[in-house]
Amino acid sequence: MFLSTIFIVAALFAQKGEIPDKYLLPAPGADKVIAKVDGVSIKAGEVEALLWEWRGPEALADIISYRMMKNAAEKMKITVSDAEVQKELDSQLSQISPAATGGKPVEVYLLEQGFTKSRLWLRIKTELLLNKMATKDFAATDYVKVSTIVVRPESTSTTAMAAAAKKADVFFEMLNKGDSWEKVLRLSTIDDRTVESKGLVGWRRIEAFPFEIQQEFLKSKPGGITKPKQTNNGFQIFRLEMLGKDAKGQDLADAETIHIQSTKPTIASKIRTESKVERFLQNSGGRQP
Q1: pLDDT at residue 22 above 90?
Q2: Which long-range contacts (CB under 8 A, 24 or more apart) does 279-287 make?
Q3: CA-based Rg of the chain, rounded to a whole angstrom?
Q4: Cα 1 to Cα 42, 43, 54, 103, distances in angstroms
Q5: CA–CA dist 71, 51 (Å, integer)
Q6: 3-class DSSP state of 289
Q7: Rounded to whole angstroms, how far apart are CA atoms 47 and 54?
Q8: 57-97 pLDDT tens trace
Q9: How far apart are CA 16 and CA 37, in angstroms?
Q10: Rounded CA gap, 56 and 65, in Å?
């Protein structure tokens, strides 16, 4: 896996400067002995003849993805510096613990997974370009940070639905009379994680909520609660934690992250659809659509 990735990526990218030279391993000469089995040498030339067929499409797919994102980013005047890629690469590598690698050096562990730093570099740069394109239309005012209490009907019967709606009304009354959000939340669920998080949903596009809820958010201050509303999840009461226009620091970063995660699949799909990609079969003179 190491040879396949390094040789192919190096061959296609070395002259383009897309990946720093320090992450590219020059291909050995054809007569270079790269392994021995029972004393019998295996030379680089024997392996090289197989690389394109065995791993060529895999490496080429990564390069094509990168080029599509790069071309689209250039049209939007978006760039990603080597320093940004290096910072993210270092961050990802630092998260690989000795427990995960079984005590092996990170480089060895990566090779066993079919990765090298050059391949990670390329994928990270591709991802960062896509992320920046996804943030292009980010507007904090489109988002709200909310928590929720959910009352789920026991079934789809009208009796169960009516019972759930009544329970949600009771919870809403309790909150209006001064009972704490945490107390009411505990009455609504036995899920420890929900209780621990205080029902926090986080940042969501305001347009994702029913119109009546949107209007209540816009009229509320942080801590304000909405009337129970039937949704796909059941009957929900929302508490406004923050309006996007007030987001700063980590809150603003979190809202932007949610925006990136929710919009980049659509952006990536559009770029792939609009990109003209031609693949040519090796050693055949043929053309692959």
Answers
A1: no
A2: 279/60, 282/52, 282/53, 282/56, 283/52
A3: 27
A4: 16, 16, 9, 20
A5: 28
A6: coil
A7: 10
A8: 888 899 999 999 999 999 999 999 999 999 999 999 999 98
A9: 37
A10: 14
What tokens were used for 187? 């009455």
More confident residue, 239 or 18: 239
For 137-184, how does the pLDDT look when each residue is reduced to its tens digit (9 = 90+)?
999 999 999 999 999 999 999 999 999 999 999 999 999 999 999 999
Sign of CA dihedral 185, 146, 128, 288: positive
**Percent with pLDDT over 70 in the chain:** 91
Rounded to 5 degrees, φ, ψ at 286 are -85, 175
Q: Are 85 and 124 in contact (CB under 8 A)?
A: yes
Q: How far apart are CA 215 and CA 65, in angstroms?
A: 42
**For range 248-272, the mean pLDDT:** 96
- Half-sphere exposure in the Cβ direction for 275 (13 Å, CA): 20
Query: How far is residue 174's CA from residue 179's CA, in Å, rounded to a whole number?
Result: 5
Give the sign of the dihedral formed by CA 271, CA 272, CA 273, CA 277: positive
- The answer to whether 171 and 225 are in contact (CB under 8 A) is no
Band (pLDDT 50/70/90 cuts) for residue 282 is low
CA distance to 161, 164, 219, per residue, from 226 (Å): 19, 17, 10
Is 77:29 a contact under the CB 8 Å cutoff? no
The per-residue b/e assignment along 231-246, b for 16 or more CB within 10 angstroms, e otherwise, is eeebbbbbbbbbbbee
Which tokens is 70 given? Answer: 């790069």
**Mean of all residue pLDDT scores within the chain:** 89
* Distance (Å) of CA 65 to CA 75, 116, 123, 127, 276: 16, 17, 9, 10, 12
